[in-house]
Amino acid sequence: MSFVRTSRVFSLLPLLLAAPTFAQFTESEPNDAKTTPNTFTASPGETITGITTGLAGIGDASIDYLRITTTSAPLAIYRHRLQLTSPNSGLYNFSLRGSPQNNGVPATGDALIQLASTATQPSNFIQWYGFGRSEFITTRVTGDAQTPAPYTLTLQRETITPTIIAAPIAPGNITITTRNRTLADTEFWVYDENFFALTTFGNDDETTSGGGTNTTRQSIATRNLTEAVYYIAIADHNLANNLGSPTDDRFRIAAVLDSPASIAQSDVDAAPDLDFAIQSPAGTVEVLASKPGPFGIAWFTFTVGPQDKPLALAAPTSVVEGQPFTLRATITPAASPTSTQITVTADASSLSAGTITLRDNGITPDTTANDNIFAATIPANVPAQTNPLAIPLTITDAQSRTSLGTAQVTITPSAAGACCTTSGCEQLRLFSCAQAAGTFQGPGSTCASTIATANAAPFEPLPAATQLTLATITDGNLDDGRWTRPLPFPFTYNGDTFTQLNICTNGFIQLGPSTGYSTEYQNTPIPAAPAPNSLIAALWDDLEIPAQGRLETQTLGQPGHRRFIINWHNARQLAVPTDSFNFQITLFETTNRIELRYATMTPALTSTDFTIGLETADGTAGINIPPSQIAAGNTALAFAPAPAPCATTCDSIDFNNNQVFPEDQDVIDFFAVLAGSECASCNDIDFNNNQVFPEGADVMTFFTVLAGGPCQ
Fold it and tell me: Does the residue 2 lie in any domain?
């Protein structure tokens, strides 16, 4: 291993000891004017030689103008020096040249930018800064009659690392100023991230139009900057690039350089205090600066980044349509500088609620003051939405910073039910009912009449019943039989009016025509979507009617007050000869009342093997009665339809309230009151309760109800 390592060292020695090779250039005549210079492209370490005595004539003894272009380099800040050496160097006059400026407009000509000095260390150099883009400068060398020895100009280049200003600087109007921070005569210029000078962002002497007092030699300028990286070149007076002075600069006649990518400073004097400040929407950043030697420029870089702003976080919220909800937003104040007097507003226009201010004052709905949780009550005045709604939030502080946030609000449906409007009853959600100026009847309510339990009459024998028979009887028994029969009167059930029904041996009836009927023997709890529906079940199970049993119907009562009865006598579960079930279903004319009546039930009902109750046409709602409530029988159940919630309700036909009705005296008293007579025990004449009376409709409705018709 050691041998290999030694071999490598010796093999590299010739390369390490080899000296770099530099080009040497010689000036040549004519080069006596700025318009006719010698031109060279030089790299660091290369030299130019010449001789001059500064005489005005043409030839070796005349003035030398040299235009030197530096070779390209990676993009960065470079300090270039051109140093003059000669046995008679103290007798040479060596300067950096530019062009004059007239009131901020560069002109053609020859103007002094910088004069080399023998008092500097090193001696006799000129200096400028570039960025690796092959910048050029023009220099002039003159001597006197005592300088016959040649001169040599040597190019040097050094990379400059700018000082980083790390403090936050926000986009917007940005002011750079040395006012009240130094007594030096300052000047600065701002460059973008590619080292191109911003055409107007520089200043030598402040003016009132630029934000100063027009009385000092300090600098101030304000420009609008977007998010990016920027550089500041700052020095004492006589800072020159190729740009004319901006309009808000008081000193607009200083010479400028000819190259668009160079900048130089003219003084060898020291300027230890070049302090300045950067003011942005994020606050003020104070920067300490000093001049880095003769002809030196101090370089700084800063980043204009996203402004430190107060931020909002609002948790997603769910609210029922039409209901108010509390919106809460947690605010994180900006830190540099710290936010004060924060305000939060919500654009609730998507909820038809306008602009709402959220507050952090400890007053309901806010819970704790000054905890940076802002709250407001907002009404959700819109119908339910499939997707969440975005509520824009705007957050501002006293430091003129503004940020935006969003709150997500999900609008869910309100409860559905019957809604009474001027046009009648509609099935609407609570929100829609309120929008229609209706009266909501409650969650789950329906526009159809409903069924309620009531007191029932006992089992009623049928004196002249019509027995239902089948052409085919298995083993002498009726099993899974079904009959479609016309009703003797229209019967309304769950809002639908029927004129037919289907009767099944299995202990139930279905209201409706012969289509869609069922003889299902496997009973299920109520409600259930599968058939049978529009169901009235007195004892649903797999029943049969034995030879000694009967399934029969009969209509009893007078027109308007009739009742249709379906009677099961001595029914039994299939193949259980010891059973004896006696029950009937009774349908009432006009009132649409339903009664389930039970005589002797053997054995007594104790299990859930039977289904008893009522079910709607779609099988989604119903009333389920436990069989144990029937037990051994000799009982009855009644179900009376409640009126539809928005239906017109009429007064009782017992107009005179003597508990005798219908009777002629009710008619006599009705017309007497209609004519204006007094009747202390009578109802008012607004029989249909439509708040309009007296009117013909009250008379017509009175006689319709008297005849057994509906209240309309």
Answer: no
Token representation of residue 608:
């859930």
Pairing relationship of beta strands 402-412 and 389-396 according to DSSP bridges: antiparallel
Mark whether 401 and 329 lie in a shared domain.
yes
- The per-residue pLDDT for 709 is 73
Q: What are the beta bridge partners of residue 48?
A: 25, 153
| 484 phi/psi in degrees, rounded to 5 | -100, 125
Three-state DSSP state, 495:
coil
Q: Do 236 and 269 contact (CB within 8 A), yes or no? A: yes
Q: What is the pLDDT of residues 384-440, one digit of tens each?
A: 999 999 999 999 999 888 899 999 999 999 998 889 888 788 889 999 999 999 999
Location of structure tokens 């920027």: 230
pLDDT confidence tier of residue 648, bands split at 50, 70 and 90: low
The whole-angstrom separation of Cα 68 and Cα 134 is: 10
pLDDT tens figures, 210-233: 999 999 999 999 999 999 999 999
Write the DSSP assignment of 268-310 as a string of letters. Answer: -S------EEEEETTEEEEE-----STT--EEEEEEE-S----
10 assigned to some structural domain: no
Distance (Å) of CA 186 to CA 181, 198, 206, 219, 232 = 11, 18, 10, 6, 13
Residue type, 592: N
d(CA 582, CA 599): 5
Tell me which residue has tokens 């080399």.
116
* DSSP three-state, residue 390: strand
Helix axes 664-674, 696-706, angle to 10 degrees: 170
Please tell me the least confidently modeled range out of 8-12, 156-160, 681-685: 8-12
313 exposure class (CB count in 10 Å sphere: 0-12, 13-18, 19+): middle
User: Do strands 317-320 and 402-412 pair parallel, antiparallel, or not at all (unpaired)?
Assistant: parallel
Give residue 254's domain range: 163-304
> What is the number of domains present in the chain?
6
Tokens of 292: 């880095």
Across 147-151, 276-280, 589-593, least confident range: 147-151
271 and 293 in contact (C-beta within 8 Å)? no
Q: What is the pLDDT of residues 659-704, one digit of tens each?
A: 777 788 888 888 888 888 888 888 888 887 776 777 887 888 888 8
- Percent helix, strand and coil across the chain, each to the nearest 5: 5, 40, 50
CA dist., res. 568 & res. 570, Å (int): 7
Among 310-314, 529-533, 614-618, 683-687, the least confident range: 683-687
Task: Give the chain's length.
Answer: 712
Amino acid, single-letter form, for residue 61: A
Q: Cβ(487)–Cβ(534) under 8 Å?
A: no
Q: What is the residue whose two structure tokens read 């339910």? A: 384
Output the average pLDDT for the chain.
88
Asked if pLDDT for residue 478 goes beyond 80, the answer is: no
Final residue of a structural domain among 642, 662, 694: 642
Residue 66 scores a pLDDT above 50: yes
Between the alpha carbon of residue 461 and those of residues 174, 553, 568, 603, the distances in Å are 103, 11, 11, 21
Q: What is the pLDDT of residue 359?
A: 97
Residue that terminates a domain, selected from 447, 470, 490: 447
Same domain, 245 and 379: no
- Contacts of residue 594, defined as CB under 8 A and 6 or more positions apart, other chains included, come to 451, 493, 536, 585, 586, 587, 588, 614, 638, 639, 640
Based on the fold, state whether residues 322 and 341 are members of the same structural domain. Answer: yes
Residue that is written with structure tokens 């769910």 in the block: 318
Interatomic CA distance for residues 387 and 206, integer angstroms: 58
481 three-class SS = coil
Can you tell me which residue has the tokens 């083993």? 475
Structure-model confidence comparison of residues 237 and 154, the more confident one: 154
